[in-house]
């Protein structure tokens, strides 16, 4: 196997320019999913990917239409016997380019500048998709891939992946695998390879309170009617205690404790109080005092008000006593919380705490379970060893505060463990003008993925 | 004087039809102040009024242009020596007519039906203006008016009287008087003549809180950033105690107690718990338990949230941790509270209670002091006796929960007492389709105003 490994790495060294030209070809398709005028480009990118998969001698390649952008699926030929099947996820859609005037060149004409490749999608995440495909191509060139790789590429990640869940639900056999790799979470610095082993889940609600039958004159009724905007504020105020803990009974019951060892691991990450203060633009942080900022945003659940609306919000003064008040409220969840349980807890809370002066309605708008992979699983060990082989140091292990639909869906629907990594850097301008890809990091990433594939085939390192 | 009184009343009986035709002429001008396409009609109504004042043999009539609709001023010749000067206020603009399809005829073509006159503005308040002018005409016909009457008519009451305060401020001498009568507050039923001796004041604020420098991703920052929407809710929740009392220190200090005698007087009004419940469309009332609903909306100050806005309020779910949150908050004030003092109290409260995780800004958007006339003043006694002479019973004395700019402004700028009455009825559809005026009540009202003028000239009854 060591020979095949070296041969695959040699393939990469010999084909660097060709692989880069291929990435540039992919990048030139302006597959902006949020903009209707680019929907044909989104389809074009799907077709380009399918063609590329076919060129990689796949066993099966298929484009699945959806109500939105198509999903592209590919499966390589079976690997060695007993070797696991790896599902690699990616999204081929990209962010819009505005403000265009801030770009130093055409966003869809890749521009190399020393070690950097500037273009929309170069980092997020066409570069990451091609890194995975290049790794497969490399191992294929060395007497065939030792494991079976499946690929699932969507074109709607930047618009919330509306068709991903139903697709996975109805294609369980097609997607059957032992492990999922999502190379969309990046690394914390060019010398800081990173594995994301946890993702927070989401339970997003809209709460509407109704008081009087219509907006009232605050002069004629102020003093006898319980103002629903006030009731909403009273409710929201009570949802946290003084220390920033959520007060909903049972909310923390399923939350897994952080072990001293995991806290130590997380403490290695180069994100301290000052980091969050600077990036949020706040004078002072907030939250549960017994946890570090990083722990609070990644390993602790939260409840946030995402929106508030009631009464008169225009210019000037209108003396209305509003008939209704609305709040968007969402919880970030951590293992082992379940969105459905949190909804029931919140409903119980509302039934108990809302006064009879108002009626209310709670709608669930989005939900995803949290993801937490054991840091000593076969997949994580294989990836960790692979990254260490290239960077010469143990990767950082982090939990991500956000929610990545694919990880949550695969865990929920297929019971599949998901590991996240990637070779994008924090300053790649992923959603901003002048997005760029560090080509050195990218090349090292491809080599690491080659190691990952062989490590997996060997049953972990 | 009794002879003159009878002669004036006789004038009214003999000229009923002519006076009514004049009112209809006035009504036909569609002076809708909220609609730009009617602004020329608003000016036309001002000119019609000025012409009518001139026909009444005034000493001075003038139209004062403003940035909006003009103000019309008139002053009758001096009355008997030592007799007081009465300033009568009115607004010649009317509400819009939508929904037009619900009208049973042209809103600006007055339609008589038995005892009712249907038209926009008939009740609110062209009918009331003409009642006052007819009363003057009647006393003039009886050897001249015993008192001097001044008139101030504005054309922007329905859009918040934006030019009234500066006009009064710069025309103190012109408006100098002993008493103001505002016939815009109506009566509680056709057999329930009503004097409104108190109006609540207003202090209207916009509060903006700022937290992070921009909207944040609730996944990446939820748990370390104090959400300004939550801070706003916590603040608002604390502004009332369990019993619905405002918690701002000092807020109630200047509030005059209700005497047992005044409470008894207010208890005569036909507005009970069921009245407020039905009109507000609520299952249950709310507010300070030691006061009746009527006392709470008229003789007690309140604090209301008029509007809330923060973060994402569109359809669906957006996981934003908002950078800012805004509330419109207003207080209804009662004597002897002062808007400026309330602003200072609120500012002190905010300085003390808002955490250092947010910055804030408080803007004052509108303010008016409360109005409270003694129920035994010369003006109130003259009016009470006048109403009793016609209706054969003591009028009801009420305090109004709303704010009437003219009353507040005259008290603040000229130190002038204001008494409010009028002959509009609660079911006149003042701001709705098929507005109507009860012509019997109107005629009785004009007679009552004749008595009022003579009573005033006699130094009260």
Structural class of chain A: alpha+beta
Largest interface between protein chains, with number of residues from each side:
A-B, 78 and 79 residues
Q: Name the shape of chain A in a single word.
A: globular
Count of β-strands of chain A: 18
User: Unreliable stretches of chain A, pLDDT < 50, 5 or more residues?
Assistant: none
Count of the separate structural domains of chain A? 2
- Percent in helix of chain A: 25-40%
Mean pLDDT of chain A, as a whole number?
A: 95
Name of the CATH first level of the largest domain in chain A: Alpha Beta
Helix segment count of chain A?
Answer: 15
CATH topology of the largest domain in chain A: Aminopeptidase
**CATH architecture type of the largest domain in chain A:** 3-Layer(aba) Sandwich
Notes on the protein architecture:
- Two copies of one chain form a homodimer.
- By secondary structure, chain A is an alpha+beta fold.
- Chain A has two domains: 2-199 and 370-457, Aminopeptidase (3-Layer(aba) Sandwich), CATH 3.40.630.10; 202-255 and 301-368, Alpha-Beta Plaits (2-Layer Sandwich), CATH 3.30.70.
- The first copy, chain A, contains 15 helices and 18 strands.
- In chain A, strands 1-2-6-3-7-17 form a six-stranded mixed sheet, with helices on both faces.
- In chain A, a hairpin with a 6-residue loop joins strand 1 and strand 2 (71-75).
- In chain A, helix 1 (2-14) runs antiparallel to helix 15 (439-457), helix 2 packs across helix 4 and helix 4 crosses helix 15.
- The longest helix of chain A is centred in the first third of the chain and has 20 residues, at 122-141.
- Chain A is globular, with a radius of gyration of 24 Å.
- Chain A starts with a helix and ends with a helix.
- The mean pLDDT of chain A is 95.
- Strand 11 (302-311) of chain A pairs antiparallel with strand 11 (302-311) of chain B.
């Amino acid at each position: 196997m060591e020979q095949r490994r070296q041969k695959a790495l040699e393939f990469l060294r010999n084909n660097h320019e060709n692989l880069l030209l291929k990435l540039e070809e992919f990048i030139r398709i302006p597959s902006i999913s949020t903009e209707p005028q680019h929907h044909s480009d989104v389809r074009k990118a799907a077709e380009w990917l399918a063609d590329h998969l076919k060129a990689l001698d796949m066993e099966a390649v298929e484009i699945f239409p959806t109500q939105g952008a198509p999903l592209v699926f590919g499966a390589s030929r079976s690997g060695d016997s007993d070797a696991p099947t790896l599902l690699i996820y990616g999204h081929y859609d990209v962010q819009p380019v505005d403000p265009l005037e801030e770009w130093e060149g055409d966003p869809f004409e890749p521009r190399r500048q020393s070690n950097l490749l500037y273009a929309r999608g170069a980092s997020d995440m066409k570069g990451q998709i091609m890194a995975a495909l290049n790794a497969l191509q490399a191992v294929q060139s060395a007497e065939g891939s030792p494991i079976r790789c499946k690929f699932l590429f969507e074109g709607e990640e930047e618009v919330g992946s509306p068709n991903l869940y139903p697709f996975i639900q109805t294609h369980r056999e097609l997607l059957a695998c032992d492990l999922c790799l999502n190379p969309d979470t990046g690394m914390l610095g060019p010398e800081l390879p990173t594995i994301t082993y946890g993702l927070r889940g989401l339970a997003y609600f809209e709460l509407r309170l109704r008081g009087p039958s219509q907006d009232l004159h605050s002069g004629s009724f102020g003093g006898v009617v319980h103002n629903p905007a006030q009731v909403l504020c009273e409710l929201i105020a009570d949802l946290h205690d003084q220390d920033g803990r959520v007060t909903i009974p049972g909310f923390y019951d399923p939350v897994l404790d952080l072990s001293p060892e995991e806290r130590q691991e997380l403490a290695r990450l180069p994100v301290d109080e000052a980091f969050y203060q600077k990036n949020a633009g706040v004078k002072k942080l907030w939250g549960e005092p017994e946890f570090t900022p990083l722990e609070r945003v990644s390993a602790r659940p939260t409840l946030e008000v995402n929106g508030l609306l009631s009464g008169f919000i225009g210019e000037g003064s209108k003396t209305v006593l509003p008939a209704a008040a609305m709040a968007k409220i969402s919880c970030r969840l951590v293992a082992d919380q379940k969105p459905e349980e949190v909804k029931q807890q919140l409903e119980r809370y509302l039934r108990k705490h809302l006064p009879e002066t108002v009626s209310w309605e709670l709608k669930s708008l989005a939900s995803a379970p949290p993801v937490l992979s054991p840091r000593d699983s076969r997949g994580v060990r294989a990836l960790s060893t692979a990254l260490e082989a290239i960077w010469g140091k143990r990767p950082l292990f982090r939990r991500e505060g956000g929610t990545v639909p694919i990880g949550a869906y695969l865990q929920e629907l297929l019971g599949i463990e998901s590991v996240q990594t990637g070779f994008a850097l924090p300053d790649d301008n992923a959603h901003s003008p002048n997005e760029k890809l560090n080509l050195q990091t990218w090349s090292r990433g491809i080599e690491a993925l080659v190691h990952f594939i062989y490590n997996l085939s060997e049953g972990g390192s």
